[in-house]
Amino acid sequence: MRRSKAVSALSLVAGASLLLSACSGGDSGSGNTDQNGSSTDVKAMAVGKAETGDLFKLADTPGYDGTVTIGIDDGYSGYNNQTPDTNSSYNNYVLTAVLSGTLKLDGNNKVLLNSDVFESWDITQKDPQQVTYKIKPNIKWSDGQPYDCKDMYLAWLSQSGLAKGPDGKNPFNSASNTGYDLIKQATCKDPLTFVTDYSEPYLDYKGLFNSPAIMPAHILEAKTGISDITKLAPTGDPAQIKAAGDFWTNEWKGFKADIMPASGPYKITAFDANQKAVTLEKNPLWAGGKGGPSKIVVKAMEDTKAMATALQNGEIDVAASTQPDATAAQTMKGLAAQGVVYGSAPQLTYEHLDLNFKRMFADKDLRKAFLESINRKEITDKLLKEVQADAEPLNSVVFFQGEEGYTDLYSSKAGLGAEAAAKTLTDAGWKKGADGIFAKGTQRAEFKITHNQNARRSQTVEIIISQAKAAGIEVKDETDANFLKGGRVSTGDYDVALFGWSAQPFKAESRSIYICPDKGGEQNYQNLCDPKIDDAYNAAVKATDEQVKLQKYQEADKAIADDYATLPLFQTPSMWAFKGIDRVYMQSYDGVLWNVGEWEQKK
Questions:
Q1: How far apart are CA 447 and CA 445, in angstroms?
Q2: Which residues contact 537 (CB under 8 A, 6 or more apart)?
């Protein structure tokens, strides 16, 4: 999982697949719009030009001779997007064009094999489960070195949680081990054949070894003096394991050309941290289609309204926002006369509030009262309707609306009103002071909601402040521009965190967010710990029967809701707009660059 645009986040939820039906044909700019203001043919852009069946490859197109400038909400920060301090959707939006993995998701969230690089990803044995991956011959990194089984082995070693240094601790600081931790043995049968043997069944195996997970093993070997990473089994030399873990965790930050080659259609050629801009140019050794822009500049534009204005003024060619904003949406919709195509679609991301169990929210009655005070419909009506006309509160953290398994678990818990919240506190021994705020002993019902620099989040907190105050709860707004990438989220440095989790369409990924931190919950930053949640998730992840799997995920979902631990606000819609390019679709997990290698200049 990645924190979504909020945390992007690390933004990270293992969400379920939200299928957007693809339409046929049509040229953008017809002028007709759907209920969200999207051009009628935008959904037709959700499918790759050369996509067939369950296989994805980049079409070989004439391309785009020149530079395309893209605005996104937050900036790139790290080549290794698998550590807690870098694990962000915004890194993923860039790296999807730079690093290759087994998996490609199209705009309909369809799970596809990346057939530009891989021949197969098959279950070769069911009991116990074994999965074999076949890499295509002659695939190379942009520095000329082979892309091979060693790279996949490093992805497993770094995220399995099994490696141990001299002190007995794992030196690979991975954001999540889910799925990789069930692979008991990984073997390079030959340079192009990677075999994984599982200790337990894992039906979501296709979510592993995606593009950001597979880093260049040859670079790590050269920089650490390790002759062969595949000899470094978890029981190998602890000193070498520590050297490998320290390099993997710490050295692939920002951008350094000599240690950060590309295995995708583009390579990073420049990164300006001050300007929050990263430059991509074509990878000359890419084996797939040769289309796409000659150069791409991706700029962070935290003010969505300013992003829309930049598109209007010709400063950028693509505006790609995962932070819906009504004013920005209106601006972009109004640019059709300039040849701008606008789109909006649900993402595999949900906006939510996480309550920190290590601070005052160890008190369940306070958690309960706070949720009761929040009217989420007011939030969605005021902040989302212009972007998504049918937006409504989300009532699950495991399932999205319309999915099999979705159950409304929060309408009976949130938005019950000020009187209900005040009664909950009164019955639990809290007393309202002369200032109208409840207190219990020396503890006032006073806390901060912390979020990154984001206008819509500030507006969300403003609404909550008013609602909570009526219930005798004092909420303060804390904005920290680096909240999602400066370590505060991952270290639990907050009372209430407001951000989003973004996920591939594999529910197993959400396990690391909600099970106990010492039981595999690497992304459980709020310190929630409930055996009922752990048991349900562990049974779901290992289930081989789809109905049992569904039931166990529902049990986990209900247990989280019953703990009043997290309040889902809404499934976050994206908004994007573009001009001068034939077709752009904002993939709900990988952003607009998922198929940039086949973009063409609009004629």
A1: 7
A2: 510, 511, 514, 515, 552, 553, 556
Q: Is the pLDDT of residue 557 over 50?
A: yes
3-state secondary structure 85-102: CCCEHHHHHHHCCCCCCC
Q: Do β-strands 118-126 and 129-135 pair in parallel, antiparallel, or remain unpaired?
A: antiparallel
Nearest to 324 by CA among 396, 253, 381: 381
Q: Which residues pair with 298 in a beta bridge?
A: 70, 278
Q: Which helix (H) or strand (E) holds 328?
A: helix 326-333
3-state SS class at 183: strand
Residue closest to 399 by CA, chosen among 551, 524, 548: 551
Strand partners, 186: 196
* pLDDT tens column, 89-148: 899 999 999 999 999 999 999 999 999 999 999 999 999 999 999 999 999 999 999 999
CB-based burial of residue 55 (10 Å sphere; 0-12 exposed, 13-18 middle, 19+ buried)? Answer: middle
Spatial separation of the C-alpha atoms in residues 166 and 484, rounded to whole Å: 32
State the Cα–Cα distance between residues 21 and 107, nearest whole angstrom: 9
Query: Mind spelling out the 3-state secondary structure of 496-557?
Result: EEEEEEECCCCHHHHHHHHCCHHHCCCCCCCCCCCHHHHHHHHHHHHCCCHHHHHHHHHHHH
CB 109 within 8 A of CB 588: yes
Q: What is the pLDDT of residues 181-199, one digit of tens each?
A: 999 999 999 999 999 999 9
DSSP 234-280: TTS-HHHHHHHHHHHHHTSBS--GGG---SSSEEEEEEETTTTEEEE
Residues 6+ apart with CB under 8 A from 572: 4, 5, 322, 323, 324, 346, 347, 349, 350, 351, 500
**CA 402 centroid distance within chain:** 20
Q: What is the pTM of this model?
A: 0.83
Gap between the Cα atoms of 78 and 175, Å rounded: 13
Residues linked to residue 566 through DSSP beta bridges, in sequence order: 354
Beta bridge partners of 144: none
**CA end-to-end distance (rounded Å), the chain:** 38
User: DSSP character for 318?
Assistant: E
